[in-house]
Amino acid sequence: MRREIRRSLLGPWGPDRPDPSLTRCCPPPPELRRAASAGYRAGSHYPLGAIDVKDWLPFIRRRFRTSDKDISTDLIRQICRMTGGHPFYTQHLCHALWELTELGKRITEGSIASAIELLLDRENYAYTALWESFTGNQRRFLIGLASEPQRVKVYSASFLQRYRLRSPSNSQRAVEALLDRDVIDRDDGSFLITDRFFKMWITATGPRS
Hints:
The protein is elongated and about 55 Å long. The protein has a two-stranded antiparallel ribbon. It is mostly helical. It contains ten helices and two strands. The protein has two domains: 2-130, no CATH class; 134-205, Arc Repressor Mutant, subunit A, CATH 1.10.10. It has helices at 2-8, 30-37, 53-66, 73-83, 87-100, 109-132, 136-147, 157-162, 168-180, 196-205; strands at 184-187, 190-193.
């Protein structure tokens, strides 16, 4: 499994070299990043789905300690909860943490918050353009999906009323369009926002619906 983690990374983070996809200028659009992240619906070297936190723990800890930067088990678990253990998003968040942490320093919860802020700032232009391409119902659906607990019932009366979708058919049309664009994916009878950082951006910025 650790070999699978190494194969899943799109570029080494840590002391080897920086990840070119995380430069401060011209961040890749979300559609391109998603296509690269897990070999979307095509054969590739990257495993589909999440990697268990127990396999991430020694890998992440070793990469930071090799650079004389320390991170606790609890914070690694927190990172994996935020990224869902997805290889692409876990790597990107760890890379930002590595980039922001000085030699000999210990990573804190504040470090993680700063890394997320950095990532969302880099993606803000692309995410804003993507958001503006959605219809009102699609935006309201995404706000609901980002705000509610995992596997929320998106056709329930409470969800429709809370996010002003008005009818199950409106929610269904939003689902079909967002699935077609790979913005969401199916998740055990419900749906999830494919790009973990886009979900964070929605909850952090509160974009208009």
